[in-house]
Amino acid sequence: MSRYKTLAAAALVAMMAAGVARAEGTDPVVAKVGDQEIRQSELDLAITSLDPQLQRMPEEQKRAAALSAVIDVKLLVKDAEKEGLQNDATFKQRVAFLTERELHNAFFKKHVVDAVTKEEVKARYDKEIAAIPAQEEVKARHILVKTEDEAKAIIKELDAGKSFVELAKAKSTDPNKDDGGDLGYFTKGRMVPEFETAAFALEKGTYTKTPVKSQFGFHVILVEDKRPQAPPPLEQVEPQVRQLIMRDKYLALLDTAKKATGVEISDPALKKAYDEAGKAREAQ
């Protein structure tokens, strides 16, 4: 979910609010601005708040950018306080909003992100895999040529016992000719329609007896194997499965809170848009 960067900051904010700080020895001072110390914990928090482009920088450059941002803040914050900007109504409103948002994010991390168990992930994975319709996949090779006559001549050579792989290497115009025209395994929807229809109609170990025309030219296709498509292993799709579980947990928390608290939106147009957005989110 797109919340991860925010959640990292929320975790630190929550720790600070609860008075949980690093021990002196594990939270060293990394810089000073006048008499104000900047500790590693504050630098860590600043790193999580960097712009996404800066997050991709090498670690040392990222630390330097974060430190620069913290120093900039420290240099001007006292002047801002002297001017009483902390007492401005708009400023207070923004601080209240940011506080609520970070509390929301800390709650989200505790009850959604950190609440997902390995058992839940495995159970949801099994459920999702069971719901996927079985698909057949084929392993094929092909020889691509420009004209129908060339394709027919190749089929005659195959009928005479010539090697499909050697013919592909010698005569195919496809970039994969050096691999003997190997296309690996593929399911329906991966190839152009004419090619797909011909490939899936073949029995294992057979080749097309007539040229197959497509937008690329004329194909001679050999199917080497057919099998049910294996589902992706859990390790490969675990992040996506976790996101499904987190979505469900989050929506359940919101539903419970709405029922307990109630939500009223006075603007009819805004209410309609809000309701439609909620339905779309639940349908995902």
UniProtKB/TrEMBL annotation:
Keywords: Isomerase, Rotamase, Signal
A family per Pfam: Rotamase_3
The keyword Signal is assigned to this record: yes
SUPFAM superfamilies named among the record's database cross-references: FKBP-like, Triger factor/SurA peptide-binding domain-like
Entries under InterPro entries matching the protein: PPIase_dom_sf (IPR046357), PPIase_PpiC (IPR000297), PrsA_foldase (IPR050245), Trigger_fact/SurA_dom_sf (IPR027304)
EC number: 5.2.1.8
Catalytic activity entry: [protein]-peptidylproline (omega=180) = [protein]-peptidylproline (omega=0)
Enzyme class per UniProt: isomerase
Residues in PpiC domain copies: 135-225
Record GO terms (molecular function): peptidyl-prolyl cis-trans isomerase activity
Highest taxon above the source species: Bacteria
Segment forming the signal sequence: 1-23
Stated family: Belongs to the PpiC/parvulin rotamase family.
Protein name: Parvulin-like PPIase
Species lineage: Bacteria, Pseudomonadati, Pseudomonadota, Alphaproteobacteria, Hyphomicrobiales
